[in-house]
Amino acid sequence: MENISTELPIVRVMREDDLERIIEIDNKVLGERRPDYWEGKVEMAEKRSPLPSLVAETEGKVVGFILGDASGWEYGMPENIGWIDTIGVDPSYQKKGVAKMLMEEMLNNMKKVGVDTVYTFVNWRDWGLLQFFDAMGFKRGDMINLEFKIED
């Protein structure tokens, strides 16, 4: 059984040496190890976004992470738009306020660069994630997701 810290996590800027732990958390949540995916995703976030990616750490161990972005560089998107790309919390630390801490810090960082509206995508059937975003104050927006299945 994993030893769970009772120490309150701190939120800090993600570092390169956090990548392996992010891969581990993703594997615990999804049941699939995706190192190439995460290497590319973190590298792209560092190059594109004016916002730093964040991690939550307790007793020297990363227990959660969040990646977000501020628009202004995308065609047709106003500069006041932000995006939550990915948020992940080690299952042993879920429902302990870690995701909320990460989200609040990311939203504060977004506000500092002029963002006043934040979007994210959530699977309609992911009730736990929908509840989390609802508790954080997110509401259904005006944009709709369109999907096209390519047939063989």
Structure description:
This protein is an alpha+beta fold. It has a single domain (10-135), classed as Gcn5-related N-acetyltransferase (GNAT) (Aminopeptidase). Helix content is 33%, strand content 20%. It has helices at residues 19-30, 35-48, 98-112, 127-135; strands at 10-13, 54-58, 61-70, 81-89, 117-119. Helix 1 crosses helix 2 (35-48). The mean pLDDT is 90.
Summarize the structure.
This protein is of the alpha+beta class and 152 residues long. It is 33% helix and 20% strand. A 5-stranded mixed β-sheet has the order 1-2-3-4-5, with helices on both faces.
Tags for this entry?
152 residues; alpha+beta; Aminopeptidase; 33% helix
Write the layout of secondary structure elements.
Blueprint: E1 10-13, H1 19-30, H2 35-48, E2 54-58, E3 61-70, E4 81-89, H3 98-112, E5 117-119, H4 127-135
Parallel strand pairs: 4-5
Antiparallel strand pairs: 1-2, 2-3, 3-4
Instruction: Figure out the total of helices.
Output: 4
CATH superfamily: Gcn5-related N-acetyltransferase (GNAT)
Q: How big a fraction of the residues is strand?
A: 15-25%
Spatial order of the strands in the main sheet?
A: 1-2-3-4-5
Approximately how much helix is present in the residues? 25-40%
Just give the CATH class.
Alpha Beta
Q: What is the number of independent domains?
A: 1
